[in-house]
Design goal:
elongated; alpha+beta; 153 residues; single chain; Arc Repressor Mutant, subunit A
Amino acid sequence: MATPDPLDLRILVLLQEDGRRTVADIAGRVALSPTAVKRRIERLEAAGVITGYSARVDYTKLGWGIAAFTELRFTGTTSPGDMDRVAAGIPEVCAVYTTAGNHDVTALIRARSVEHLRDVIHRLRVSGSIVGTRTHVILDAHVKDDWHPELDG
């Protein structure tokens, strides 16, 4: 796909703000016909720029009030695929990020309590290939779910 033009970027911003926004609403905001907007959205989807649509969930309201980043250091012979599988094999691990630096992987973990978090970390530690962990409990999150590059830059 060619680089998205300013209209594509504006459509992306509108969808990030509200993924349930109608094509007609977007068309009115970007001064295009609904058909043209629909074609642009389909092109962005086909190119993998838009990877899906989802709901933002407040997990604390579902009883999962503890969130933490746990850095995992693996043995030197562990493949990147095995690193991902170890962390992803724990249901409480929400996301796995391969990183550069002192640790190999950072995992986002959600737990119901501090005791539950301790249990999750223990399960990671005894997986056999992890040689060190460091956990950072998240006190408050200021997530920019709708981050986007400057439209004019």
